[in-house]
Write a structure and sequence with these properties.
CATH superfamily of the largest domain: 3-Deoxy-D-manno-octulosonic-acid transferase, N-terminal domain
Order of helices and strands: HEHEHEHEHEHHEHEHEHEHEEHEHEHEHH
Strand order of the largest sheet: 3-2-1-4-5-6-7
Helix content: 40-55%
CATH topology of the largest domain: Rossmann fold
CATH class of the largest domain: Alpha Beta
Distance between the termini: 39 Å
Number of helices: 16
CATH architecture of the largest domain: 3-Layer(aba) Sandwich
Number of domains: 2
Number of strands: 14
C-alpha cells in the first residue's frame, strides 16, 4: 500500500462519514456539539504562545500523554503563561479524563483528533500550528504523521510500540506506506529494544529505547473510609483483586473458588471489578449459579469473613481496591483482549499476576516480571490450570507476596525516572527547534 492508495480509500470513506458519525452520536460515542472537530474544524481559537501537541486515541494512550505532560510540567514547561499542551483524543471517555485534568490546572486544550483525510488534517494543522507534536503509543495515522512532519513541525513518536498484528501489516502490506511516513519522523522513543529495532526497520531515524509511559500513570486516589470498611471483617483473609475483568475471566475466578472449596480453604476473598459495570448483574448471576453468594458494592454491601466473592461494581474506586489487596490479577490478559496496564498496582507496591495476552502493555509487564514484582503465565493448553496453581501458591506464601510487592514498587520508581528522561529530551528538542525558527 502507498500513501496515494491510502488517500484514495479515504476519498471513498469520506462519502460515508456523515452517516457513520450520526450512528456514533446515537450510541454516545461522539460529542454531539463537537463533531466538526472530526473534519479538522474547531470553535476554539489558538492562544498566542508555544503549543506542544500530545496525541493519544483512547484512555490508555491518554494516560500516557498525561504522564508525559505532568513530567514536562515538573521540569518547567507550562510555568510560562504562554506555554500550552494541545491534547487530542478519539474516545469520549478519554476526553472526559483530559478535561478533568484541565479543570484541575493542567495548562491544556482538548480537541477530538481529525479523521485522517488529508484535507481534515491540513485544516487542523492550519488552525493549531503546533510547535511540536508527540504521537503516543501505537496510534499511527499516516496523514497525521506525514503532513505534520511535511509542515516542518518537529514530530516525535513516544512510548511507541506495535502489536504483533500491527507489525505484520506495517512490515508486509503497509511496508511502502511505513517507509513514507516513519522516515519523516524526527525522533522515536520506543518502549523496549525489540520495538526500537522494528521502527528502525520501518525507516525511522533517531530511535531510542526508553519505556512505556503507561508505566507512570497517575496513582488513583484512595477512599480511606471505604478501605476501612472493606478491611474491617477481613483480618485473616488474603485478598485477590481481579481488576478490569472481561467475559471469560469471571468464570476463571469461579474455577478458583471451586478449587478452594474442594480444598476446604476459606482464607481467600476474590474481589471482581469488571471492566464494564453494566455486566455486574450477569456476573452476579453466574457466581450464584455456581453455588456461591456475593455482596455488591453498588448496593452498599461489604464482604464478611465467610465470603469468597465480592463484586466491586462501581466506578472510581480502583485505588481503594488495590490498596486492600494482597495480589492483583490484571485482567484482559487471560482472554484475547490484550491486557490492561499493571502500572497502578505497581505504584501501590502490589504483586501482580497476568496472563499471556498482554499486547497492549508488554513493556510494563516485562519490566515487572524482570524486577521480580510480577508473574506472567505463558500461553498454552494448560494455562488456566497453571494460573490457578500460581494464585493459590502465592496467596499461601506471605513472604513471597511481600518480596514481590517491594520489587513491584521499585520497578514503578524506575519507570518514572525513564519518563523524566523522555521529557528532558523533548524539552531540549523543543528549545532547539524554537531557536532554529527564530534564526
Amino acid at each position: 500500500m502507498t500513501l496515494s492508495i491510502y488517500n484514495f480509500l479515504w476519498g471513498i470513506i469520506k462519502l460515508f462519514l456523515p452517516k457513520y458519525l450520526e450512528k456514533r452520536k446515537k450510541k454516545g460515542k461522539e460529542d454531539r456539539n463537537r463533531v466538526n472537530e472530526r473534519y479538522g474544524v474547531s470553535k476554539k481559537t489558538r492562544p498566542d504562545g508555544t503549543i506542544v501537541w500530545l496525541h493519544g486515541t483512547s484512555v490508555g494512550e491518554s494516560v500516557a500523554a498525561l504522564a508525559l505532560a505532568n513530567s514536562m510540567k515538573k521540569l518547567g514547561y507550562g510555568s510560562n503563561k504562554k506555554e500550552y499542551f494541545l491534547l487530542t483524543t478519539n474516545t469520549v471517555s478519554a476526553a472526559k479524563l483530559i478535561k478533568d485534568k484541565i479543570k484541575k490546572g493542567l495548562p491544556a486544550i482538548h480537541q477530538y483528533h481529525p479523521y485522517d483525510h488529508p484535507k481534515f488534517v491540513s485544516k487542523f494543522l492550519k488552525q493549531w500550528k503546533p510547535n511540536m507534536v508527540v504521537f503516543m503509543e501505537s496510534d499511527f495515522w499516516p496523514n497525521l504523521i506525514y503532513l505534520t512532519s511535511k509542515s516542518k513541525i518537529p514530530t516525535i513518536l513516544a512510548s511507541s510500540q506495535m502489536s504483533n498484528k500491527s507489525a505484520r501489516f506495517w512490515t508486509g502490506l503497509g511496508y511502502f506506506l511505513a517507509k513514507k511516513i516513519f522516515s519523516k519522523v524526527d525522533h522515536v522513543f520506543a518502549v523496549d529494544p525489540k520495538q526500537e529495532a522494528l521502527f528502525k526497520k520501518l525507516g525511522a531515524k533517531n530511535v531510542k529505547s526508553l519505556t512505556s509511559l503507561k508505566s507512570i500513570a497517575e496513582k488513583p486516589p484512595i477512599d480511606n473510609n471505604y478501605v476501612f470498611k472493606l478491611k474491617k471483617n477481613l483480618v485473616r483473609k488474603k485478598i485477590l483483586l481481579a481488576a478490569s475483568t472481561h467475559p471469560g475471566e469471571e468464570e476463571l475466578m469461579i474455577k478458583l473458588a471451586d478449587r478452594l472449596r474442594q480444598k476446604s480453604q476459606d482464607h481467600i476473598l476474590i474481589i471482581i471489578a469488571p471492566r464494564h459495570i453494566s455486566r455486574s448483574l450477569s456476573i452476579k448471576s453466574r457466581i450464584q449459579s455456581a453455588g456461591f453468594d456475593t455482596k455488591s458494592r453498588s448496593k452498599g454491601e461489604f464482604p464478611s469473613k465467610n465470603d469468597i466473592f465480592y463484586l466491586a461494581d462501581t466506578m472510581g474506586e480502583m485505588g481503594s481496591l488495590i490498596e486492600v489487596s494482597d495480589l492483583v490479577y490484571v485482567a484482559g490478559s487471560m482472554v484475547s483482549v490484550g491486557g490492561h496496564s499493571p502500572s497502578e498496582a505497581s505504584q501501590f507496591g502490589k504483586p501482580v499476576i497476568m496472563g499471556p495476552h498482554s499486547e497492549k502493555c508488554d513493556a510494563q509487564i516485562k519490566d515487572l516480571v524482570w524486577s521480580g514484582g510480577a508473574i506472567q503465565i505463558k500461553k498454552g493448553p494448560n494455562m488456566n490450570e497453571i494460573f490457578l496453581d500460581n494464585v493459590i501458591e502465592l496467596l499461601s506464601n506471605s513472604e513471597k507476596l511481600e518480596d514481590m510487592g517491594k520489587n513491584s514498587l521499585i520497578a514503578s520508581g524506575y519507570s518514572q525516572q525513564r519518563a523524566d528522561e523522555a521529557s528532558i529530551h523533548l524539552i531540549e528538542l523543543l528549545n532547539k527547534y524554537k531557536k532554529i525558527d527564530v534564526a
